[in-house]
Every structure is written in structure tokens, then in C-alpha cells.
Amino acid sequence: MLDQFSEQARSDFQRARFKAFMNRAWATLSGQPTTLLSYDEIKEKLHIGGPIYRGMQTVRVEQITGSLNRYHEFDRVFLPASDKLAERWQSVNRAFYQEISLPPVVLYKVGEVYFVVDGHHRVSVAREQGQIFIEAEVRECATRVNLTPNLRLEDLEILGNKVNFLERTSLDSLRPNANIKVTIPDGFDRMLEHIAVHRYFMGLDWKRDISEEEAITHWYDNVYMPVVNVIRDTDILKDFPGKTEGDLYLWVLDHQRYLVEEGETLQPPEVAARTFVDEGVKKPVRKPRSDRGKKRKKQ
User: How far apart are alpha carbons 207 and 254 in whole angstroms?
Assistant: First the structure.
């Protein structure tokens, strides 16, 4: 009977390796991520804290998409990336068929993503065998931004910029309900510039020194949110698939600056947003600086 289990385990591994090859080929064509997320890279870019012990938990296998130190050995769906993993993988797989209990895996949790500390082969076999959940010992790491299992490398760069933005502004503390999202690579850097300029003109208008905290909250309440409220009221975001309110805010300010350069009077944020919406319906919207730069490069 053991030989039967061994043969099935070998067959399963060969199938898993073929699926890994097909995934890699498809990823090459589609540009989708294939490798596991690296915990060390996440830690460096997002400045995460912890980990704090959370005890034994039942975790959805599909949320495990990262590794502490073996992220090159499995792909994003934990298929084995090398034949060198065959012996250990098949051993764990035999235990599955023989209904032998194995120790729980050890995971770090960051946002909605789990990173394997110990138990890579157990996670791989569980996923290949169609398990929905797995028992795990979990330690959670604090983060100022939310990670999801479908995170792409370009998303990580933007999230890193968001962490820098929050560390510089403490907006998540000053306005706990604020959750600015952008897909424009330099979006958060540009918002920091907006806040700095806003602080300068506040000082001129109010004829006194303006604290950073005062400038940040005033910018959020009187510049950013009026634009976002217009975006929500007009439901224009549906015309920009894949974009965010933060993206459109940046476009509105680009559009406002363009109008000023053309000799028109500077408008309040909410008026500029409505002008943007009205003109956007009639003619193509001017792209943000980062998009225009990409277009020039392609030409």
C-alpha cells in the first residue's frame, strides 16, 4: 500500500511541476506576478512592525502568498519551482494520502497576506490537494497600509510611497477615516508637494507661521476632500476604470494648473473639479505628468 501512495505522490509532483511551468509561461505573456512575495522586501519598503504572537488560527490557503526566506523555491500559488524539491514534497504528499497529521505551519501576517516561516512544502501540498484552510501558528506584523494576496511589484512601490507619505504627515492619525489610494507612481510625492505649497500660501494669507499638522489637516479638509466629494457626487470615477479618487484629484490639480498657465483665474478646488468633470465629458482629459512622460518615451 505504501508503494501505491509513493507512486501517487510522484505523479502529483510531476503534475504540480507541469502546472508551475505553464503558470510561468502564461506570466511571461501576461505580465502577471509569478514569484512569492519576499517578507524582507515587504519589511524594508513598508517599515512594518512586530511580529506579535496571535496563537493558533485557521487560515485560508489562498491568502498565503509570501515567504520569509524561500520565496524563490515556489511560485505565487505555491507550486514547486524546482525538481530539487521532489523528495520533501512527495514525503509531505504521502502523509496527506495516509492521513498522517503534520505540525501546523508557522506564518507571519501582514495586512491580508501571510508569509511562510516554516511549512512551505505543507502549504504547497495543501494548495495542490485543494485544501481551503490550513492550521497555522500566526504572528502578526503591524503595517500602516493594507496588503492583499494579489499584490504586484509595482503596487509595492506605490505602497512604499504611501507609507512614506503617512510617516511624513501622520494623516492616518490626524484623520483616521482618510484612506488615500493612487495608481500614479509619484502620486504621494506630488501630494507632499501640494501640502508644502498649501502651507506656504496659508502663511501668506493668515500672516503667521503655520504648523505642519495645521497645514496637513487644512489641505485634506479644504483641498483634497472638496475635490473627492465632487468626484463622488458626479460618479465620474466609473469613466476611469482602474483609477482611484486620488488619481483624479491629481488630474484635477494638473488641469487647474494648466488653466492658470492659459491665463484663467485660479479656481477653488471644488470648482476646478466640476470644471474638470464638465470638460472631461466633452474632450479627452489631460493626462497626469507621469503618464505624459511615459507617452513621450514610447514615441
Answer: 27
Query: How far is it, in rounded angstroms, from Cα 209 to Cα 191?
Result: 21
The predicted-structure confidence for 43-72, as pLDDT tens digits, reads as follows: 999 999 889 999 999 999 999 999 998 988
Cell readout for 174 is: 490626524
Cα gap 141→43, rounded to integer Å? 9
Q: How far apart are CA 238 and CA 229, in angstroms?
A: 15
The answer to whether 24 and 96 have CB atoms below 8 angstroms apart is: no
Contacts of 140 (CB under 8 A, 6+ apart): 50, 51, 52, 54, 108, 109, 110
- Interior CA angle at 145 toward 141 and 146, to 5°? 80
How, if at all, do strands 37-38 and 64-67 pair?
A: parallel
In tens, the pLDDT along 181-235 reads 999 999 999 999 999 999 999 999 999 999 999 999 999 999 999 999 999 999 9
Looking at the chain, the domain(s) classified CATH 3.90.1530.10 span 2-142
Nearest to 136 by CA among 58, 50, 52, 51: 58
Task: Tell me the whole-structure pTM to 2 decimals.
Answer: 0.81
**232 Cβ partners below 8 Å, 6+ apart?**
245
Structural fold of domain 2-142:
3.90.1530
